[in-house]
Every structure is written in structure tokens, then in C-alpha cells.
């Protein structure tokens, strides 16, 4: 009797299951996969780059259209787009802006303006504008011409205030055309950040070797050797509000108890050296009010200069010098004497310690002063015309 064949289990496998293509075919397949992957990624990246480029270009054109709609003139000689694949670069030659900026009619012309961003974050802008600049302020009849070695701006726009703004200026030299006075800066930095759900508005600036034009008529000279300021505002007014009707906006802001927290203010101007911190707010009359702790250098010389210029009352200068000189200290290693004082701004008066120094002019904020009430004066009677009574 014949035995039936049986299929045994074990390591048996069909030859097709163990087939391996030749190495040449394997290399071809791997190369095709790589090529397709590169083409796919490159296509997606290229498409994304052009989409991001279109967004940036559209945003710039929208801004130009909005500025022109507001009556401004915006023009340029040429605009060049480049930067593929890692950047988006817009190079604008001879840009011109004529319109309103910071509440003033202004005309600006630059040698060049370069706007750069990244495709994956097109709203984070880097702006550079070195070279020659012309700035005309028609309302003040001022015209500045000159150049800057470096002007760099990093901007992340936000709602109202920018989420982040960094400005760096190096080697600015401008000359006013009529008076030949200088506006120059050795180095200047500005930082603004805004977090409406956190610390609010943060402001920082730091400048050295600043020369201001003569039109400002600074009592201690036109050269500011050091200027540094850091402050925060938890509930700031937006730029749109600041450009609006302050007579309606400022009272509401003041009633909410807002104030400016100045963590550092440092100034060196002529003989004056000042370092201070404190808070500044508005009183019920919308006038500045605040208290500060300050360290002065050259205070008594400054008081004498202000007295000679008629900026402060002579008796106030003499009283302050006599009363405060006892608090003056000279550093152990030598150098100018310093004095630590409290500074108060209240009821339109500035005081050093308990001594009033000068009156502060009233700040109108562009709000018209209320008309003084005039009482009706009765018409004088002529008693000679009254007939006598017998």
C-alpha cells in the first residue's frame, strides 16, 4: 500500500520569499526614493516660500495703500525680491515717505531699505536702512541730512503695540540745513515688548554720545553723554488711543489707577549725573505726580547754572544749596561729590527733599483750557438822575 505524501512543518520556505534583488537594483530603488523625497520636500518648501513671500509682499502693499488712503505719499525707485530658499528679502531703493508720523508732518527719504524674514515665520521682520537719510519736519521748518553707519530693526507686530521691537542705531550723523546744528548718536538701543496678559508694556532705551540740535535749547548743553531709561506700564494706552481724543481717554486711564513704574533712569548731561527710580502718574487734574529716589552728581553746579539762566528762582537756588550741602558726600577715592535725595513732583511743583525748586508748566495734552467763568457786573446807577423824595 502506497504511503501518501505529507507536508512537513519546519523551516521550509518558498524561494520567492527569500528573493533579494541585485545590488544594482537596490541602489537604483534607494536613489529613486531619495530623489522623490527631495523633490517632494523641495516642492513643498518652494510652495511654502512663495506663499510666505506673497504674504509679506501683500502686507507691504496693504500698508502702502493704507498710507496713501490717509493722504501720505509713498514711493521708491525699485523693489527687488530675493532670498530663496532660506530667506525672504525685499530690497527697496530710494524709498520716500511724505505724511504724518508721531503726530507730525514728516518727509523722509533713505538711500535703501531692506526687509528680511524667514518663510516659516514671515511676520518676524528684520529691517535695515544704513546709508544716507533726509528728514524734513515742515511744521518746525527743520531739515536734516546725513548718514548712519548702522540702522537695524527687529519687529514682531502685535495688536496695537508690537509684541517685540528692537532698534539699534550706530554712528548717526545728521546736520540741520539752516542752523548747521548736529543730531548725532554714537550708539542707541531701544526695546519695546507688550504682553497684554502679563507685565503689560516694557520699555528700555540706552544711548551714548548723543548730540541734540540747538533748537531744543537744553540748559545744560546739547551733548548727552549717557541716557538710559527702563519702565513698565501694566495697563498702557494703545497707539491708536494716544492718537485719539485725549480729553476722553486720559481721565479714564487715570481713574483706573494707572502709573508708570520707572525702574531705572540714568542721565549724564553737562555737569549733571543722575540715577533715579520711582513711579509717575496723573493727578485728578491730569498733571504729572510722582515720587523718586535719586542720586545726584554736580547738583549744586546745576542749580547755579539754572539760577543764572533764570530757569529757577534765585532764592530757591540759594536755599536748596545751603540746606542740602550738608548731605553731600565725596567718594573715598576722590571724584565729584554726590548726594542722595527724594524727589517729588506734585501740584505742578518739583521738590528736592523738603525744598521746592521750581514750578512745572501745566501740561495741556492738547486739551483746550476751560473758559473762566465771568460774573455779570451790574450796570452802575447814576444817582444824580434820581428825583429827590420829600
What does this protein structure show overall?
The protein has a domain at 27-129. It has helices at residues 23-69, 239-242, 246-255, 299-308, 314-324; strands at 73-75, 78-82, 88-93, 96-101, 104-110, 112-118, 121-128, 131-137, 142-156, 164-176, 182-195, 200-211, 223-233, 260-269, 272-282, 288-297, 338-346, 349-352, 355-359. It is an alpha+beta fold. The longest helix is centred in the first third of the chain and has 47 residues, at 23-69.
Which terms summarize this structure?
19-stranded antiparallel β-sheet, alpha+beta, 390 residues, single chain
Report the biggest beta sheet as strand number plus sense, adding barrel if it closes.
Answer: 19 strands, antiparallel
What letter string, H or E per element, gives the SSE order?
HEEEEEEEEEEEEEHHEEEHHEEE
How many whole angstroms does the radius of gyration measure?
Answer: 35 Å
Q: What gross morphology would you assign?
A: globular
SSE layout and pairings?
Blueprint: H1 23-69, E1 73-75, E2 78-82, E3 88-93, E4 96-101, E5 104-110, E6 112-118, E7 121-128, E8 131-137, E9 142-156, E10 164-176, E11 182-195, E12 200-211, E13 223-233, H2 239-242, H3 246-255, E14 260-269, E15 272-282, E16 288-297, H4 299-308, H5 314-324, E17 338-346, E18 349-352, E19 355-359
Antiparallel strand pairs: 1-4, 2-3, 3-6, 4-5, 5-8, 6-7, 7-9, 8-9, 9-10, 10-11, 11-12, 12-13, 13-14, 14-15, 15-16, 16-17, 17-18, 18-19
Helix pairs in contact: 4-5
Amino acid at each position: 500500500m502506497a504511503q501518501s505524501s505529507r507536508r512537513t512543518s519546519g523551516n521550509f520556505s518558498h524561494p520567492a520569499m527569500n528573493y533579494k534583488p541585485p545590488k544594482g537594483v537596490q541602489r537604483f530603488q534607494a536613489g529613486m526614493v531619495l530623489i522623490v523625497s527631495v523633490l517632494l520636500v523641495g516642492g513643498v518648501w518652494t510652495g511654502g516660500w512663495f506663499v510666505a513671500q506673497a504674504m509679506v509682499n501683500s502686507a507691504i502693499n496693504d500698508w502702502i495703500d493704507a498710507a496713501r488712503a490717509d493722504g501720505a505719499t509713498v514711493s521708491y525707485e525699485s523693489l527687488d525680491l530675493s532670498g530663496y530658499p532660506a530667506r525672504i528679502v525685499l530690497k527697496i531703493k530710494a524709498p520716500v515717505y511724505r505724511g504724518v508720523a508721531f503726530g507730525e508732518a514728516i518727509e523722509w527719504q533713505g538711500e535703501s531699505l531692506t526687509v528680511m524674514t524667514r518663510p516659516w515665520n514671515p511676520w518676524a521682520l528684520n529691517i535695515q536702512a544704513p546709508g544716507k537719510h533726509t528728514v524734513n519736519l515742515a511744521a518746525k521748518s527743520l531739515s536734516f541730512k546725513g548718514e548712519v553707519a548702522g540702522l537695524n530693526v527687529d519687529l514682531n507686530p502685535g495688536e496695537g503695540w508690537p509684541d517685540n521691537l528692537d532698534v539699534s542705531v550706530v554712528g548717526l550723523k545728521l546736520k540741520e540745513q539752516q542752523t548747521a546744528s548736529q543730531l548725532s548718536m554714537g550708539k542707541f538701543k531701544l526695546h519695546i515688548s507688550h504682553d497684554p496678559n502679563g507685565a503689560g508694556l516694557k520699555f528700555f532705551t540706552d544711548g551714548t554720545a548723543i548730540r541734540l540740535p540747538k533748537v531744543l535749547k537744553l540748559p545744560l548743553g546739547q551733548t548727552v553723554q549717557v541716557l538710559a531709561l527702563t519702565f513698565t506700564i501694566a495697563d498702557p494706552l494703545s497707539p491708536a488711543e494716544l492718537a485719539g481724543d485725549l480729553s476722553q481717554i486720559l481721565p479714564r486711564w487715570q481713574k483706573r489707577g494707572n502709573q508708570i513704574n520707572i525702574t531705572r533712569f540714568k542721565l549724564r548731561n553737562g555737569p549733571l549725573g543722575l540715577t533715579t527710580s520711582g513711579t509717575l502718574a496723573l493727578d485728578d487734574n491730569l498733571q504729572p505726580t510722582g515720587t523718586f529716589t535719586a542720586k545726584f552728581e554736580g547738583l549744586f553746579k546745576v542749580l547755579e547754572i539754572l539760577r543764572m539762566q533764570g530757569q529757577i528762582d534765585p532764592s530757591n537756588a540759594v536755599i536748596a544749596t545751603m540746606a542740602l550741602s550738608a548731605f553731600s558726600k565725596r567718594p573715598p577715592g576722590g571724584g565729584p561729590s554726590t548726594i542722595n535725595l527724594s524727589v517729588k513732583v506734585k501740584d505742578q511743583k518739583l521738590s528736592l527733599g523738603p525744598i521746592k525748586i521750581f514750578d512745572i508748566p501745566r501740561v495741556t495734552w492738547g486739551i483746550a483750557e476751560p473758559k473762566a467763568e465771568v460774573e455779570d457786573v451790574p450796570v452802575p446807577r447814576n444817582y444824580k438822575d434820581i428825583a429827590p423824595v420829600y
